[in-house]
Amino acid sequence: MAAKNNCKNARREKQRQNMSDSEEMCEDCNKEESPDDKGLVCSLCDNWFQIKCQRVSVTDYDFLIKSDDRIQWFAKAAKVRPKKYIKC
What we know:
Elements: H1 2-16, E1 39-41, E2 48-50, H2 51-54, H3 58-66
Antiparallel strand pairs: 1-2
């Protein structure tokens, strides 16, 4: 379980840093991120999106960044079918 938490914590830390140490591109607008951009990584497709492109408010963004790993965020344009994650 520790490895799972480490992976999720690493993802959250990457989001907190707005991924400024990488050359990520927003999947919606295809613009490279800048240090001032606020973005989230989709829990389904694992892609990065600017909050303005996904129409996520700064209040919601701050909540998601500060939340624990039980809170997941899904992009409107996630390129993975949710059925993969639903156990029937």
